[in-house]
Design a protein that fits this description.
Shape: elongated
Oligomer: single chain
Distance between the termini: 79 Å
Radius of gyration: 28 Å
Low-confidence stretches: none
Structural class: mainly alpha
Helix content: 55-70%
Length: 92
């Protein structure tokens, strides 16, 4: 839980991290009380390994190999109009 709080606090700030952690604890408490599940601590090493896998996956997704090539042929920009040209649709 401490690692989750530190990551959230670094990304979104302490106030948001407090609310997120409170919500996570409330959901865990509800699951234990309503479903009758037992809380089993998975350990810090397993949590850190999961966080590392998530970071590696996001880095692979953001890698330059997955981005659009900079040699794309984009159409040339049009010159901006300096004034509106109107043609009458009918004469009076």
């Amino acid at each position: 839980m401490g690692g989750f709080y530190r990551r959230m606090a670094a990304r979104r700030g302490g106030l948001v991290a407090n609310i997120a952690l409170a919500r996570k604890l409330a959901a865990l408490f509800w699951r234990v009380m309503v479903k009758g599940m037992h809380y089993v601590e998975q350990g810090l090493q397993q949590y850190e390994a999961k966080v590392l896998q998530t970071k590696q996956r996001s880095l692979r997704a953001d890698s330059p190999a997955n981005s659009v090539s900079s040699s794309c042929q984009c159409p040339p920009k049009r010159e901006p109009r300096t004034h509106l040209q109107t043609t009458p649709t009918h004469e009076l």
